[in-house]
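Page 37, top half.
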Amino acid sequence: MTEDELIAAMRPGSRSPTEERDTPDLGRFGLGLKSASFSQCRRLTVVSRRDGIVSAAIWDLDEVVRTNTWAIEVMQDPSPLPWFRQLRGSGTLVIWEKIDRIADGVTHDKDRIAEIANERISNAEYHIRLVFHRFMSVSGRKALSISLNGRTLKPIDPFAESNAATMRDQEDVLHLRQGDVVIQSITLPHHRQMSQQAWEELGGPEGHLKSQGFYLYRGRRLIQYGSWFGLARQTELTKLSRVRIDIPNSMDSLWKIDVKKSSAQMPPVVRDRLRKLLDRISLGSRRTYRKRGQKLVDEARMPMWSRIQTGEQISYCPNEEHPVFLDFADRLDPDLREAFMNCIRLVGSSLPVDTLHSDMAGHAEKIRGASAGEATVIQGVEAMFKRGLAPGDVWTILRDVEPFASHRELVERIIVGHQEVRSEV
């Protein structure tokens, strides 16, 4: 910026909000730089170099209080300023000093202040990586590079578009007088189809249940996310559903974008369109969970558990016809056989439904079945063969079922052994 442009930029409300903006312009009210800075510090310095000429201006709230005058200070020689040497070519440097808002109310405990500061830096890092991810993901010279404490930040794509299992619906375009609203529904992969680190990063600090819903972008900058705007509830079955909504900066008034550009109100015409699309939007997530759940109760796979629905009531109980149970029961005398089956039924009737519901509502992806040792797995596989099943059928039944899926190599060795014996016979 030139000195005149810098002074104008330091003025609160430097441009009329009704003035037409260029398409990539993220501003609107001319308040962002100043309001964001004063929310964190009492002294704001901006240095800008253009065509080899350096200009610098300072807002110091302590001076405003002392003089009772809202006036900026124009610096003649900004070279002593921190990080001034990093300003090469054309560019702008923003410096915050007298930072007094990081640890509000904590003034004496240095350890506590450091802890709060580190926590807020971590939150700021996540916010930057998510909000500006589309600018940071661009390849070539137009890519935005952001560093924090010497580390180059990597973008967080809330739609996991690099994952081959991500499902994308076709874009739906709503043409309005102020521009186009582009809507695209995306279904995230199941948590078993990505690393735990990638899954947790996608969920963010509040988890996937709170991160589902609409992701509103203004000029490719994320404005608001993790909400269905009152059109649906956040549920476990829909937590893989995310909807990207792109709007241009010409729609600020229509969407009632606030000064901080962190919240918006959905116009009725857009709400009506999304209401019609909602069933299709959530279908992918529901299908993913139900399909995986169906594998566990599919009769063709001889499940360890049976799902029984009577009217509106659903219950789960161990499958008494499973080869593992029948093989062991056949080795018992009649009295012990009946006692064994009663124990199996007791396990089913004591299923901790309330506790499971509570855990599923919070962190479903963290729920795991109890681990089983190799001896348990071997007994289970051998029981299938004792019931007369062919090796290929045993593999089809067990490959997606725990604990056998976690001991894939062991199961394969047992099956291969039975195949070799059969071939010799």
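Page 37, bottom half:
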Amino acid sequence: MAAATLPERMRAVLLTGHGGYEQLAYREDVAVPRPGRGEVLIRVAAAGVNNTDVNTRVGWYSKGVRDATGAGGEGFAGATAADAGWAGTPLSFPRIQGADCCGRVVAVGDGVDASRIGERVLVRPLLRHPDEPPPACWTFGADRDGAFAEYATAPADEAYPVDCAWTDAELASLPCAYSTAENLLHRAGVRAGERVLVTGASGGVGSAAVQLARRRGAEVTAIAAPEKADALLAIGASRVLPRDSSLPDELGASIDVVVDVVAGPGWPGLLDVLVRGGRLATSGAIGGPIVELDVRTLYLRDLTLLGCTYQDEEVFASLVGYVEHGEIEPLVARTYPLQEIVQAQRDFLAKGFVGKLVLEVPG
């Protein structure tokens, strides 16, 4: 391992089990990890707050949970540890969460060029699975320790150098939300001139999808609370509809692609607004995971439903390129010091913001 002298202990937030905020333990005596073969050690500067971190803590991924994500800030009674991980498998505790990682490489493991020390990097949050072919993948901050700490290790080829004027907090808003949004658009094959409907458009993934769809030349209709409309129009939406709108009445069957992270009781209306041959891409269910589907709508109108988790190689690399070429803008609503993670997650679930909340880890 090539490195400057490293401390033995660090500040970190440990997830000690599934449940409420009491499961988040801020500590200052956690052992600093050392990079293994093919890995880098990153001094974390900032880490975004995401649904997946909260969902994992509260056990929302368990099949015993049928509620909206915001209903379980203190945990879900129906969750079982056996399937509460995002992949339907048990998690190991304690775990350092944090899917979003922005920082600098401070040490490298065997097989990694020491010239990488000093690089400013972003970690791709959906890592290639070490033992299985695609679409198998594993997640930074769930299947292995993540960025809610001063230091984190990552596979060297999953730590992407980035050269831009964004702040660390702005860059930390990118990996999970923007790659999820870009993947939804990539998988749905969104093209210039198409009409795209984005649900949950004020959140991290939704606001990223608005920007990224507009970047592709699509016409974007966003769904969000009225008080958030101006912010969404400013980043590329052509129209913003309130969450309680009757979508078929407002839009008819005029939408080529729906990008959905909400699901819930309003989901059938998303199919009704698609043109014949339209596509719906989903990567979330903050409004509730159980929906009603009229299969006749699906097959008689030749619709395509796309579940999107695994990301093709080009998705994250493209995203870094968009940043470096000034093609997208960061949208950070608020920052917090790492030790205020509970307040950050409370604010996250309250949804009183547009964009991303970020934890800063000062050196």
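Margin note: The first strand starts at residue 2 and ends at 3.
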